[in-house]
Design goal:
It is built from 1 helix and 6 strands. The chain has 82 residues and is of the alpha+beta class. A hairpin with a 3-residue loop joins strand 3 and strand 4. The longest helix has 15 residues. It is globular. The two termini are 18 Å apart.
């Protein structure tokens, strides 16, 4: 979440149990990670920020930070945006 000041989206999803990194103002998980099969680590971002969404903020930083964090984990990772 380095450098992230604001995030906003009108769509969200729920995540399965994982280690929470950030919450939405509703208390639901926003960013989380967990280890998956094969020893890989996955990062989940629950907001939809694609076409048709009303979104703003530092989403690009969230994606870049997640990718950098996974790369530095050196355990293999998958970045999944929903």
């Amino acid at each position: 979440m380095a450098g992230v000041r604001t995030l906003d989206s009108n769509y969200a999803d729920l995540v399965i149990p994982a280690t929470e990194v950030a919450q939405m103002n509703t208390g639901d998980s926003l960013v989380a990670f967990r280890q998956v099969s094969g020893g890989h680590t996955t990062v989940g971002v629950t907001a939809y920020v694609g076409d048709g969404a009303i979104q703003s903020g530092d989403w690009g930083k969230v994606v870049v930070n997640a990718g950098n964090w996974l790369y530095n984990c050196q355990v293999g990772g998958t970045l999944r945006l929903r």
